[in-house]
Amino acid sequence: MPDMSASASLAMTQLATLAKEVDEDKVTPGVLGFIVFAVMALAVWGLMRSMNRHMGRVEFTEVPDPKADSEDSAEATGAAKPQQG
Prior knowledge:
This protein is mainly α. It has helices at about 5-20, 30-55, 65-75.
């Protein structure tokens, strides 16, 4: 198996020379950064539109609880509820 440390140190020395050539004040995300940001923005917009469409299709009707109805009728007639605890 070849020694990977030699190739890693060679790659680091080449990258270090490239880093010296780059002016830190002029580094920008460039066209690729804009394209990635635009694709992510379009994806979020599409997902939100889809979510709104799916939420609009949901029909929620609450089913009355039979226990709550019996308790309400007991209170209306004056019957005492058993004390808890």
